[in-house]
Amino acid sequence: MEGAERTMIKQCQGCGAPMHSDTPGTPGYLPPHILAKDGPAICQRCYRIRHYGQDEQGPVAAEQASTAVLDAIPWAEGIIMVVDLMDFEGSLSWDLIRSSVGKPLIAAVNKRDLLPKQVSDLEAVQWVRQRFRDLGVPATTALVSAAAGHGVADLVNYCERLGHKRWLVAGASNTGKSTLVNALLGETDQIQNATVSRFPGTTQNTVSWQHKRIGECKDSPGLVPPGRLCDMLSQVDAAKLIPAKALKGKVYPFPKDSAMAVKGCAAVVAMEGSTDAVAVGFTASDVTWERANAAKLDAWLESSGSEALDFHSVAVNVGAGHELVIHGLGSVAIRRAAVKLRLHKPRNVKFTVRPHLIGGKAYR
Ligand SMILES: Nc1nc2c(ncn2[C@@H]2O[C@H](COP(=O)(O)OP(=O)(O)OP(=O)(O)O)[C@@H](O)[C@H]2O)c(=O)[nH]1
Ligand SMILES: [Mg+2]
Ligand SMILES: [Zn+2]
């Protein structure tokens, strides 16, 4: 009887893990007397994340997340792909984009609240649309701040107009999928909402929610796109790199031989370029770009935390008005004159050169 009830109920409404009373300290665990109660419930891990901000159990395995998302795609009539505006290229999941072909793909470009005020919604949307065109991503853009509720009503209206009734909310880990699901549900009468945390890998499996206007929405575990620096560190070090603060720029003159670094993570050295060149180092996390001594970069880079990263360097040309983005870390925008620079980064970390997100009005 008890076993039958268990298989009937039970999935954690916060993270999607199957509920059990077998192994304390694993996702989905609840003591038997609580698990036996009726109604939706959240597991002990979700409870600890929500009330103490702690996740001792660590992230969902990348393969498990990927399998859960790929399994849900045939079910979905439309995909809401959540992308982190602060780590745009780094948080694009190409596996998801490829697997979504043939279905409406809405890119909910999230964390708009972290952009400086000088950038208007229109500018940001135009920039995102152009990036999707350049990258060949056939997505409709919805600029949102799931945490602040910005753009969420427009997203609901758009989904409703399309008329589909099964929506999969998917994307890279920590982009704000669960926060968006909660914002979509808004003032509905759901008893438990999706668990949100600053640690990547919170959601364990797909979880269904009923939305009055757009039908069934599924939250899903975060995919891990290759090449993000934050995914190569321990959970504690990674948390320092995860975009959670207003995007901040540090402006430095960037003539030949000058250098900037984020301690333990990456550095850039100007190899060729005019004395007029200026670099703006952007991050939206607990780390910042600092001026560095080009001759002493090794010391800067080796001060990484617990993990031993394998650094290498690569030459990169960055035009004026463009920026070098280091996936899962931040960017360096070049102003006034083009620069040929040398980028020092951990070997598997990817980078992109793109037109700048923040135009001429800020950080001139
Ligand atoms: N500033 C800001 N932070 C946000 C926004 N949306 C989500 N976050 C934060 O981003 C972090 C991750 O949010 P989640 O909703 O748990 O992200 P997720 O994509 O469900 O993450 P996983 O389940 O781990 O894949 C949390 O610290 C959120 O508070 C937003 O619109 N603005
Ligand atoms: Mg989640
Ligand atoms: Zn849970």
CATH superfamily name of the largest domain?
A: P-loop containing nucleotide triphosphate hydrolases
Number of domains: 3
CATH topology of the largest domain: Rossmann fold
Poorly predicted runs of 5 or more residues: 1-7
| Quaternary structure state of the chains depicted | single chain
Strand content range: 25-35%
How would you describe what is shown here?
The chain is an alpha+beta fold. It has 3 domains: 2-52, no CATH class; 62-225, P-loop containing nucleotide triphosphate hydrolases (Rossmann fold), CATH 3.40.50; 248-355, no CATH class. The protein contains 10 helices and 16 strands. The strands form 3 sheets. The protein has a 6-stranded mixed sheet with strand order 3-2-1-4-6-5, with helices on both faces. A hairpin with a 3-residue loop joins strand 5 (207-211) and strand 6 (215-219). The radius of gyration is 22 Å and the shape is globular. The model is unreliable at 1-7 (pLDDT under 50). Magnesium ion binds next to helix 8. The site of zinc ion has 10 residues, from helix 3.
Keywords:
3 domains, binds magnesium ion, Rossmann fold, disordered N terminus, 5-stranded antiparallel β-sheet, alpha+beta, binds guanosine-5'-triphosphate, 364 residues, 10 helices, 16 strands, 25% strand, 24% helix, binds zinc ion, 6-stranded mixed β-sheet
What does this entry show, briefly?
This protein is of the alpha+beta class and 364 residues long.
